[in-house]
Design brief:
The protein has 88 residues and is an all-beta fold. The protein has no helices and 7 strands. Strands 4-3-6-7 form a 4-stranded antiparallel β-sheet, with no helix packed on it. A 3-stranded antiparallel β-sheet has the order 1-2-5, with no helix packed on it.
């Protein structure tokens, strides 16, 4: 049995770079928002695993992320809750 998924946003040592994690296996579709109300959402490139590195972010700014699993036959899992981090 799998444990609960844990999401995390880590600051890179490079300015304006965040490493976003969605714990668990499988391909992911990602979204990012720079506002807490998620009025403007940016689609990020899909990944084959649970980590994406996001570059060219404004330092000291808060960013929100969510993901969903890419399933077979063009289907997707449910979106995760939004979680956030501050760009270094």
């Amino acid at each position: 049995m799998r444990g609960p998924r844990k999401n995390n946003v880590k600051q890179s040592t490079e300015p304006g770079v965040l490493v976003v994690e969605g714990t668990g296996e499988g391909g992911r579709q990602w979204e990012m928002s720079s506002d807490a109300n998620h009025q403007v959402v940016t689609k990020l490139d899909p990944t084959s695993g649970g980590v994406v590195e996001v570059r060219d972010l404004e330092s000291s700014h808060q960013y929100w992320f969510r993901w969903r699993l890419v399933l077979t036959k063009g289907r997707y899992g449910a979106w995760s809750d939004w979680y956030f981090g501050f760009a270094p």
